[in-house]
Amino acid sequence: MLNFEYYTPTKVVFGKETEKRAGELAKAFGASKVLVHYGGGSAKKSGLLDRVCDSLAEAGLPYVLLGGVVPNPRLGLVKEGIELCKKEGVDFLLAVGGGSVIDSAKAIGYGLYHNCDPWLFYDRKATATGCTPIGAIPTIAAAGSEMSDSSVITNEDGWLKRGYSSDYSRCRFAIMNPELTCSLPPYQTSCGCTDILMHTMERYFSHEKHTELTDSIGEALMRTVMHNAHVLMEDPQNYDARAEIMWAGSLSHNGLTGCGTAGDWASHQIEHELGGMFDVAHGAGLAAVWGSWARYVYQEEPEKFAHFAIHVMGVPADSGTTEETALAGIRAMEDFFRSINMPVSLSELGVHPTDDQIREMAQKCVFFGQRTVGGFKVLHAEDIEKIYRMAL
Ligand code: NZQ
Ligand code: ZN
Predict the structure, then answer these.
(1) Phi, psi of 93 (to 5 degrees)
(2) Domain 11-180: which topology?
(3) What is the pLDDT of residues 113-161, one digit of tens each?
(4) pLDDT of residue 318
(5) What is the DSSP string of 292-329?
(6) Which CATH number fits domain 185-390: 1.20.1090.10, 1.10.10.10, 1.10.3470.10, 1.10.3720.10?
(7) Based on the number of CB atoms within 10 Å of its own CB, is 326 exposed (0-12), middle (13-18) or buried (19 or more)?
(8) 68: left (phi over 0), alpha (psi -120 to 50) or beta
(9) What is the pTM of this model?
(10) 63 has which bridge partners?
């Protein structure tokens, strides 16, 4: 087991009608004027935005609104948000929506705190020393941004999608009402379940030994998500299944499932370039590339993939050699993705990159030769090109 730090400062308030506590919580965390940040309209349509604003008003907190965050959130709106907050004297950011909204709020928080262009952080030109405080009311179980230290922003100039991680951006509180996710279209529910699984798999596929507890937590989490994703396919309004998945989403990305492991993260980096260039939904993009990544890297440690096959995917332990069991596990995960209508190739994702585009994505992925990606197998640009081609 590797040395690790585990830091989860976010206060979680979980359950039905908890959004009514938004004002009380923002006030408790020092807000005197709030930016309510939201997306393309789902929070407005469902009435959630009104309930949140009522709660702020009841707590005596003035607020301003900024909607319009799109999936793969853009730097342009982040900058607009920073200017609005400066003009209005905002000192607390409340993100009401999906991971894209929470990430957009985090980027606003960096820019506001440092009074600078927040792209400096995402472009690795500066290191954050703070962030305006943020609270989150997630409406989709997916990115786990409500408890993570990460955010991912797309710069329209060059369509670069870049992540930045810092504990300063961790939300002060997360209000999680599973009922809020009942209005999700089935495709978004499946994208979210895929992302949650991937946040666990990225940490699980790692070469460290003696991570029995961490691995077992991850295995239980993955089995829980797959089981409840199937429940939701039949019964999208099932509160208990929504609750299991929502809690799994947060635990999957707050560090718990990676304690003592180095993690891999190549699939995420490979997907981020698809998101930047083709604007695909993050979860669907992950499903489309994971099988190709897995087949490209599993020989680094077939035993780990075989363990995954048996303990997560339910592949019988006596189903052949270690390699055969490993490959059966990869096929089983792809079958699961298909069963929730997720794509398992780029063409199923609706993306048909040219050779030039594949080269460009691979180069962007390694920051034009400045880094490699992946821990389970270290990948260079030529490896990433091969994985994109395998995924076609
Ligand atoms: O904009 P609205 O109208 O709200 O519609 C959204 C959006 O179209 C819709 N939606 C959300 N909640 C809904 C709803 N529709 C109906 N009812 C609801 N209750 O769902 C669509 C997707 O929303 P988005 O916020 O983009 O989804 P998600 O949470 O999957 O976030 C994806 C973004 O997070 C990044 C991804 O790269 C991507 O940009 N990630 C962030 C991470 C982090 N901060 O830790 C880690 C992840 O690995 C990921 O990279
Ligand atoms: Zn993700």
Answers:
(1) -110, 125
(2) Rossmann fold (3.40.50)
(3) 999 999 999 999 999 999 999 999 999 999 999 999 999 999 999 989 8
(4) 93
(5) HHHHHHGGG-HHHHHHHHHHTS---TTSSSHHHHHHHH
(6) 1.20.1090.10
(7) buried
(8) left
(9) 0.97
(10) 34
3-state helix, strand, coil in the chain (%, to 5): 55, 10, 35
> Within a 13 Å sphere around the CA of 88, how many CA atoms are in the beta-carbon half?
20
Q: Determine the longest span between alpha carbons in the chain, in angstroms.
A: 66
> For a pocket test of ligand 1, which of 78, 253, 282 has the largest count of ligand atoms closer than 8 A to its C-beta?
282
Q: pLDDT tens digits for 151-207? A: 999 999 998 989 999 999 999 999 999 999 999 999 999 999 999 999 999 999 999
- Which H helix or E strand runs over 335? helix 322-339
The domain ranges of the chain are 11-180, 185-390
Q: Measure 143 CA to ligand 1 centroid, in angstroms.
A: 7
Among residues 21, 31, 32, 27, the alpha carbon closest in space to that of 55 is found at 21
Question: Which ligand 1 atom lies nearest to the CA of residue 42?
Answer: 3
Q: Whose CA is nearest to atom 34 of ligand 1?
A: 99
For ligand 1, which residues put their CB under 6 angstroms from it? 39-43, 71-72, 97-101, 103, 139-140, 142-145, 148, 150-152, 180-181, 183-184, 188, 191-192, 195, 253, 268, 275, 282-283
